[in-house]
Amino acid sequence: MPKLRTVAVLAGTALLVRRAMRRRIRTSPLWPMPALEEPISGRPRSRALRVLVAAREEVAEGVVQLRLEGHDLPRWEPGAHLDLVLPSGLVRQYSLCGDPEDASSYTVATRLVPDGRGGSREVHEQVREGMELEVRGPRNRFPLVGAGSYVFVAGGIGITPVLPMLRALPDGVEWRLLYCGRDRASMPFLEEVEKLGADRVTVVEGVPDLDALLADVPEEAAVYCCGPEGLMAAVQERFPRVLLERFTPRTSTGGAFEVELRRSGRTLTVPADSTVLAAVRAELPNTAYSCEQGFCGTCQQRVLAGEVDHRDELLTDAERGDSMLICVSRARGDRLVLDM
Question: Which residues, at least 6 apart from 305, have a Cβ–Cβ distance to it below 8 Å?
Answer without folding.
Answer: 335, 336, 337
